[in-house]
Amino acid sequence: MREFVGKTAFVTGGAAGIGLALGRAFARSGMKVMLADIETDALQAAVKSLQEISPDIRGTICDVADAESVERAAQAAFDAFGRVHVVCNNAGVAAGGGIDHISLDNWRWVIDVNLMGVLHGIKSFLPHIRAHGEGGHIVNTASMAGMNSGLGFSPYAASKFAVVAMSEGLSVQLKPHGIGVSVICPSFVRTGIGQSGRNRPARYGPTQPLDPASPAAAMVAEIARRIEAGIEPSDVAARVLSAIRNDELYVFTHPNRRQEVDERFAAIQAAMDKVVAG
To answer: Is the pLDDT of residue 263 over 90?
Structure first.
């Protein structure tokens, strides 16, 4: 999809971080934009800021873990703008993992948002995009955590690996229909994902505090430091727009993470070679 002017984008997690940066980039490219987010005040502020670029900006409350909520948000986009062409399944959360304290509530919350939220977006919009026949693009936000196991045994990494696999399979099946797919795999980006527990629904139980002396607490502190030193969300958005225009599946933003990917692929290749050799 090379032309953006006059077309419509829908972005979850659109009130801040990468989602807001995507919305801003789309607006500047002449697109109509529907921002979807679970935070009312932040969403209103985001919509207001983008309306300084274009009047064709709207917002809708959406809990991506709830399929019906996503359906309502999709209908709001259809009602506001008619046809939607670009769907960014971007909303994401993070919660503690590791082997010392395996919280089923953490796993369910992260999987419901990061993985099922992507599925809900695809289910709500794909039939619409196929039906209008004007082509389009689906952008799923994964992470470098979906390319290597640096975060260890965690719901975040598991969800992001799944999003990569989902995107790869979707890309093959949608190519004949003129619909592109991109999966964003950034490393550390300066966003508020470290505070995502503020939006945790009560149905997943309270966030359990970490033992300050635990390895998990040390990892969380290090991740927070790296997020603060990360790249800007606007850098990610610029890469995404380029990927949409050029129909690129993988969207990477941190060349310094190449070695980790190479090491994982080398280990896989070595294991395959061992089987081949008998």
So the answer is: yes
Sheet with 136-141: list strands edge to edge.
57-61, 32-37, 8-12, 86-89, 136-141, 179-185, 250-252
Rounded to the nearest integer, the mean pLDDT of the chain is: 95
Q: Which 3-state string (H, E, C) describes 3-68?
A: CCCCCEEEEECCCCHHHHHHHHHHHHCCCEEEEEECCHHHHHHHHHHHCCCCCCEEEEECCCCCHH
* C-alpha–C-alpha distance, residues 164 and 207, integer Å: 27
Supply the pTM of this predicted model.
0.95
156 is catalytic: yes
Which of 26, 107, 125, 156 does the annotation list as catalytic?
A: 156
Which residues, 6+ apart, have CB-to-CB distance to 139 below 8 Å? 22, 86, 87, 88, 89, 90, 181, 182, 183, 184, 240, 243, 244, 251
If you ran DSSP here, which 8-state letter would residue 184 be given? E
Q: What angle do CA 122, 143, 149 make, to 5 degrees?
A: 120
